[in-house]
Design brief:
Blueprint (H helix, E strand, L loop, with lengths): L1 E5 L2 E2 L2 E2 L1 H17 L2 E7 L16 E5 L9 H15 L3 E5 L2 H14 L2 E6 L10 E6 L4 E6 L5 E5 L15 E4 L28 E5 L10 H10 L2 E4 L1 H5 L20 E5 L5 H4 L7 E6 L6 H4 L2 E4 L2 H16 L1
Parallel strand pairs: 1-4, 1-6, 4-5, 5-11, 6-10, 7-10, 12-13, 12-14, 14-15, 15-16
Antiparallel strand pairs: 2-3, 8-9
Helix pairs in contact: 2-3, 4-8
Bound molecules: flavin-adenine dinucleotide.
Cofactor: FAD
Keywords: Electron transport, FAD, Flavoprotein, Transport
Protein name: Electron transfer flavoprotein subunit alpha/FixB family protein
Length: about 325
């Protein structure tokens, strides 16, 4: 019996959301009086044993390089094998693209109950009850998992990353080989020079209040100064001002940065559904009654064309 946390990675780097999942899994293991173990499929640049500082006792690694580009079904098959071998009864994923694709497949194969998008540690006094957000973050629900193996995917920024001290994790190389890929990724093209939106710590986002694509320099200049990613509301992408991969919201990319700056965006529920997991939200809008202010941590009522250049200057001054 143990808690097994799946370590997600890209380009040789462990994703920040996985560090949060490790912290969450370790806290859950302490609550259940058991051990926290982690699973890495493929290879990363980091020294794995240092992940002990998040409270992880043991890391199982299946180091076959082809896992680095495996599809969700292959990963689910491998995690399933690791769960059987380690005897884990709780499996934790990040609620990101990998978690969304892999966790349900694993649940089906293990006949396990899954709660996707958890926001707190489970209550374990009377069963195993997990709190999650529903209706695009407008409400929360408590879900009881009754199956022997339980799977949770954790919403970003809902638990935090917690270091426990300089403990070293034991590394256990496991003999799990990838099953055959049903699909094959022939090539991937990374957009160069841009901070990837879904992983960004800071996102600067613009809406129809910017009036047109010719004014987008306000968004890109601020994003550049803050080393942030650029995003937009859906109508901005629909009107062709910006590419669709930058559109955030219920029907676009879901983001959970430390800082989300919304400029000239009204704050419609469909937009908020994709950004309300951000740690800090700053809203700049000339309409004091814009709904976005209700979701904001900080708000500036003002004209973007006056406020944003001043912000850019202030950031430059701070950096200088
Ligand atoms: C099924 C469905 C799914 C949808 N999915 C999404 C989604 O995923 N993402 C999404 O974003 N939308 C989505 N929408 C659209 C959503 O309902 C809103 O229409 C959209 O978010 C509004 O975009 P906006 O805030 O940029 O524009 P507007 O609603 O036009 O708001 C512009 C804002 O800019 C402010 N403003 C104007 N001038 C200035 C200025 N000079 N300085 C500062 N502020 C200024 C205004 O006060 C206003 O608040 C969806 C809609 C539907 C029906």
């Amino acid at each position: 019996m143990s808690v097994l946390i799946y370590i997600d990675h890209t380009e040789g780097q462990i994703k920040k959301g996985s560090l949060e999942a490790l912290s969450y899994g370790a806290a859950l293991a302490r609550k259940l009086n058991t051990t926290a173990e982690a699973l890495l499929l493929g290879t990363v640049k980091e020294e794995l044993s240092t992940l002990g500082k998040y409270g992880i006792a043991k890391i199982h690694q299946a180091a076959d390089e082809s896992f680095n580009a495996a599809d969700a079904q292959v990963i689910a098959n491998a995690v399933s094998a690791a769960v059987s071998a380690s005897g884990a009864n709780v499996v934790i994923f990040s609620f990101n693209a990998t978690g969304v694709a892999v966790a349900p497949r694993l649940a089906a194969s293990l006949k396990a109950g899954l709660v996707a998008g958890a926001v707190a540690l489970p209550e374990t006094e009377n069963g195993f009850i997990v709190k999650k957000t529903v209706f695009s973050g407008k409400a929360s629900a408590k879900v009881k998992i009754n199956s022997a193996v339980k799977i949770i995917s954790l919403n970003a920024n809902s638990f935090g990353i917690h270091e426990m001290g300089d403990t070293t994790a034991e590394i256990n190389i496991v003999d799990i080989t990838p099953t055959e890929n049903k699909v094959k990724v022939l090539s991937t093209e990374l957009i160069k020079g841009e901070v990837p939106l879904a992983e960004a710590e800071i996102v600067v986002s613009g809406g129809r209040g910017l009036k047109g694509p010719e004014n987008w320099y306000l968004i890109s200049d601020l994003a550049h100064e803050l080393h942030g990613a650029i995003a937009c509301s859906r109508p901005v992408a629909d009107d062709g001002w910006r590419p669709h991969h930058e559109h955030v919201g219920q029907t676009g990319v879901q983001v959970a940065p430390n800082l989300y700056i919304a400029i000239g965006i009204s704050g419609a529920i469909q937009h908020l559904g994709g950004v309300n997991r951000s740690k800090t939200i700053v809203v700049i809008n000339k309409d004091a009654d814009a709904p976005f202010f209700k979701a904001a941590d900080y708000g500036i009522v003002g004209d973007a064309f006056e406020v944003v250049p001043k912000m850019i200057e202030a950031v430059k001054k701070l950096k200088g």
